[in-house]
UniProtKB/TrEMBL annotation:
Residues 8-70 form the Nitroreductase domain. Belongs to the nitroreductase family. One of its GO terms (molecular function) is oxidoreductase activity. The keyword Oxidoreductase applies. Keywords: Oxidoreductase. InterPro entries: Nitroreductase, Nitroreductase-like. SUPFAM superfamilies: FMN-dependent nitroreductase-like. PANTHER family: NAD(P)H NITROREDUCTASE YDGI-RELATED (PTHR43673), NADH DEHYDROGENASE_NAD(P)H NITROREDUCTASE XCC3605-RELATED (PTHR43673:SF10). This is Nitroreductase. The keyword Secreted does not apply.
Length: 166
């Protein structure tokens, strides 16, 4: 199986992390993959804030309703896009997916934590010192893990339709 296809098919949301730091060069490469994501009209409306310090991760975990496990991650990438961009959600989502897949390729677990228009979005933006012209799209905790969840996925035959929905 092609390595890219393997990464796509084996990726799972990881919420338990080992107490092991991720080298800065790997974090930079993961974010480099994010910045290369497709964006409408190639506007590239994003900015990424990587949080590795314990206090910052704990505060993000406290703020994020469904992201308490952020505190245990080695790092968390906050993905922001310009508010006035008509495709901020799509562009930020493409960048987020690139983060998740690049992390998997490095053997690093991740989990997409929603950020777009959540009650805590502005608090996260302020905490990280991001200008008001940006809005939070997602938080992506990253960490090594020996856990490999395997939740059931719908079979292809249930979700694939040819030509028309029938």
């Amino acid at each position: 199986m092609n390595e890219t296809i393997r990464v796509l098919k084996e990726r799972r949301s990881i919420r338990q992390y080992a107490a092991r730091p991720i080298p800065r060069e790997i974090l930079e490469d993961i974010v480099d993959c994010a910045r290369l994501a497709p964006s409408a009209n190639n506007v590239q409306p994003w900015v990424f804030v990587v949080v590795t310090n314990e206090e910052g991760k704990k505060e993000l975990a406290r703020l994020a309703t469904w992201g308490k496990f952020i505190a245990d991650a080695a790092a968390c990438v906050a993905v922001f896009c310009e508010k006035d961009n008509n495709h901020a959600v799509e562009d930020g989502s493409a960048a987020t997916e690139n983060i998740i897949l690049a992390a998997k390729a490095y053997g690093i677990g991740s989990c997409w934590v929603a950020g777009y228009r959540r009650p805590y979005s502005d608090e996260v933006r302020r905490l990280l010192g991001v200008p008001e012209k940006y809005e939070l799209i997602s938080l992506v905790p990253l960490g090594y893990s020996d856990k490999t969840p395997n939740p059931p996925k719908k079979p292809l035959s249930e979700v694939l339709k040819w030509e028309k929905y029938e």
